[in-house]
Amino acid sequence: MNKVLLTGTAGFIGFKTAQLLLEKGYDVVGVDNMNDYYDVRVKEYRLNLLKEYPNFKFYKTDIENLEALEIIFKDHSFDGVINLAARAGVRYSLVDPFVYVTTNTLGTTNLLELMQKYNVKKFVLASTSSLYAGQKMPFIEDLPVNTPISPYAASKKGAEAMAYTYHHLYGIDVTVLRYFTVYGPAGRPDMSVFRFIKWIEEDTPITIFGDGTQKRDFTYVDDIAEGTIKALETETGYEIINLGGNKPYKLNYMIELIEKFTGKTAKKVYKEFHKADMKATWANIEKAKKLLKWQPKISLEEGIRRTVKWHKENAKWLKEVKV
């Protein structure tokens, strides 16, 4: 493969995946609508770093816009597509479910339709561990995921189903990646790791939904990006593959690590557990090991240390970022 279309390029996972692809010598065409779901300054920071690479080209557009996407497909001959563009955020999907359907499901359909039209044969789709709500842990890929508890999760299931349809009808090779609680430097300001580091550094109380004993299978962003590229480079037919840390930790332990590396004590405010949140996540990653030769390398301790370090190095402009 030489040229890749990567959507959601200015997003958290998209940025790191694009960066690794560019360093591996790929030509990357990036697409992002630069929406303001969270502070755009973080997206601009990521995008400016990518623009330093000569093998990177960027289009500010939306995967909901079929006509704009088709112009891009006409202008470039893609070897593969990685769809990391998505409306993120479980809780906000209860406020505006419609935009989740139009971006996550319809947007994915737009890409698949253009892929079959322009004969692009490899598709990597970012999906979510949120689909496993109510299932037995550790979550394995062949579990039935028929009980999504948020419009976000439901819209991702719709994207997975549409990807299967295009695989069946047109022979597109599809790898669906279900990500588990991704964190790291230049992360999303709406997620707990970013918020907690910022708030603890600023001596602002942190808000915890529940008692902090809920568990997450935290996965460092570099590991996720590596797994995503391995999926691009691997012919799978149609496969759903978990990418996760394979070791769930309590939220309270993650907070303790932030306290350790910031050298500060968190002031905690507890609120009722949110009904759209999952109590725990835990990925079975045997399929990723077997098919992609992938497993995570960065421990939670090392990952939080690196993330706090990045926050300290960028404290001047991060001070203005809204969370």
TrEMBL record:
Domain of life: Bacteria
Entries under Pfam families matching the protein: GDP_Man_Dehyd
Domain NAD(P)-binding positions: 5-307
Protein biosynthesis recorded as keyword: no
Swiss-Prot/TrEMBL keywords: NAD
Protein known as: Nucleotide sugar epimerase
Naturally occurring in which organism (per UniProt): Desulfurobacterium indicum
